[in-house]
Amino acid sequence: MSIEEYLKKELSHFTQDHGLDVPIILQRPKDAEHGDFASNLAMQLARPLKKNPRQIAVEILASLKLDAKYISKAEIAGPGFINFYAATSNLYDQLLQIFEQRENFGKVKQTNPLKAQVEFVSANPTGPLTIGHGRQAVLGDTVANLLEAAGYDVTR
Q1: Which position among 38, 48, 64, 112 has the lowest Cβ density within 10 Å, counted as fewest Cβ atoms?
Q2: How far apart are CA 21 and CA 98, in angstroms?
């Protein structure tokens, strides 16, 4: 399970306990000092709970059972943002996973893959070749490769 999936699951416990159906949004802060992930959930819940967002953020943090394997610390910032800092051990585990899986990392294997047909430019042997032909060939092949990595059965 990724850190993002883990955080969404943990934050959804708070919304479920309060009988609310709010999408859990995690963002990557632009400034590294604000952590690895940030959530504005407290501000989303301010109106339905009729409370100050910062107070809701305190309640959210108190209710979270953060696993040190995923998150090293969490803190409240500004009007009610919750910043989460990823545990370095988890990042090392992910790097090891990338190293072990090599070219298969990130690829999805589906038992019943959807079919996709990607048509893209091919060189005309009787006409002139242009930079546009080369660019479109690369673009089409890249789209087909991405679909294959996502688990599609691709015909070029």
Answers
A1: 112
A2: 35
100: burial class by Cβ within 10 Å (0-12, 13-18, 19+)? exposed
Q: Where are the domains of the chain?
A: 3-90, 107-155
CB atoms within 10 A of CB 133: 15
pLDDT band at 83 (very low <50, low <70, confident <90, very high): very high
Mean pLDDT (whole number) for 9-19: 90
> In Å, what is the CA distance from 118 to each residue of 42, 47, 101, 131?
44, 47, 27, 20
Q: Which of 14-28, 105-119, 120-134, 140-154 has the lowest mean pLDDT?
A: 120-134
- Superfamily of domain 3-90, CATH level 4: Arginyl tRNA synthetase N-terminal domain (3.30.1360.70)
How far is residue 122's CA from residue 99's CA, in Å, rounded to a whole number? 35
pLDDT, one tens digit per residue, over 117-144 is 999 887 777 888 888 888 888 999 999 9
Q: Which of 48, 58, 60 is nearest to 11 (CA)?
A: 60
**Is 152:113 a contact under the CB 8 Å cutoff?**
yes
CB atoms within 10 A of CB 14: 21
